[in-house]
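Meet the record:
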Amino acid sequence: MAPNFGSIRYKTRTTKWARFGRTATPNPNAAKLKPMSTYTATFPATATAPASAGVLLPAFTLWWREVVRFYRQRARVVGVIASPLLFWIVIGSGFGTSFRSGQAAGQQHYLNYFYPGTLVMIVLFTAIFTMMSVIEDRNEGFLLSVLVAPVPRAAIVLGKVLGGTTLATAQGLIFLVFAPLVGVHMTLASFGLIVLTVFLVSFALTALGFAIAWPMDSTQAFHAIINLFLIPLWLLSGALFPLSGASGWIRWLMYANPLTYGVEALRTLMYPEAPSAFSLTASILTLVLFALFMFGLAFALANRRTTKPAA
């Protein structure tokens, strides 16, 4: 015999209302009710994936965050400019006229020769150390919140890389205020090409810094990689000594170094009469390929599936 669920429900209600001194009216149709387990309903699955926020808006947000975050740290801004400036003055004045890279105008004093290399050093330091924020965001949990949001990985890479590129380009262009002191006289066309060259170098180095920082969770390891890999990359770029005067195996390393083409392009634009190992067109095309390759590498690393926690 089936249990009378209606009477049980009525007794339960009576007991519940009796606690407050009230009596519930019995339901006359309670005996006709069927057990609740027999009432089933099937609802269609309407759950859909969250709508993506697109690429441009998240990328712009991350770009703006990088810019504001950098310029709020005033000591960091001063350090990025002051350290290469000190290198340029001390090393350039130390070598002085004892260094000769040719007889062309603007190549007689080492301060003149070292000026484009110092500009690339500023870009290198700003671009690489800006991407240290990737490790800091991971340790603070911000990166995890971005990864779980309906935002494509391309927006994350683009926003971070463009943020570092903007900062590195701005810091490098600020250093151009010293250009008249070393005999650099720019036209509007040459200034535009210098801005383009600095932008390409900044974009490539920032993407390289992102690719190095993405799989890391320690700033100490990041600094170790910087000292081991990126400083020699700058030393072998023709910033300190010309390509023509290097020994055989060093010369081949300088040819294979994409940063060499950035230094040579800047030197060609600043000192048009100086001898150059590459044409300006070849240097800029090499920088474009270098920038695209580094961005593709950063994008591939960001989209790689891993079991390592993001925070």
About this structure: Residues 5-23, 36-51, 103-107 have pLDDT under 50 and may be disordered. The chain has one domain: 56-303. The CA atoms of residues 79 and 111 lie 21 Å apart.
